[in-house]
Input
Amino acid sequence: ASPAPVVAPPPIVQAPPAQQLALAPTGGALASAVAAALAESRCSLVSGGIEAGSRVRLTGYAQAGGGESALRLRLASAGVPAERLDWQVRGFAGPYCDALDLLRPIADAFGETPSGLALALPGGRHRLVLGDLLTVRVAMPRFPAYLRVSYFTHDGEVVHLHPNSADAARVFPAGARVSLGDPAEGGPRWEIGPPYGTEMIVAIASEQPLFDTAREDFESSAAYLAALRDRLGRAGRVAAQVLMVEVAER
Output
């Protein structure tokens, strides 16, 4: 009888290594990923930091709708899980993208020590109605600085609250508290009226004056931003803060 044919064993095929799932960044990598995403997110001004449990606290402003969605998408693409976000970013509607993009490099950055410059309305309000007085409280940064506070309207105009024709530019000490528009302290009386919508107050502190000559009390936002763009890099150390305010008839 013929011998039985020898059957060769099947070749051993090694399974490919299991694909590793991308892990969310932690610690310094997480802070760097968030900071990079925020720096590249147009039409927003957002800061914050990493809190206990690797929670990502975000505060500031992003354009309502598309701007907010784009920011969330950038964070997700950077590997930041949505469940880690402490989202305190307020959406806004208004022509303020160019201003925010210009100010972002000099505003408080995510994860870094704040400049100390702060901007608020009395009582922490974010909404004013017809007949209310506009009073702005400013805390100066941790360095002596000139201060420039401007009120941007949603129809493309800027009103300079300080300095202006009645209130000359001057240096304020580090950490000083400044009140603008408070008649009880001898300030002017700025009363809220139409047009209504989302308005923006911008405070900029700088070691050197931003402009060599005084600007008009009222001007277009386009003209002011163009002038700022040319001067921000020439004023020494600078810091910026933004406050969005809803203005309504009632």
About this structure: The helical segments are 27-39, 66-77, 97-103, 221-231. Residues 27-39 form the longest helix (13 residues). The chain has two domains: 25-92, 112-250.
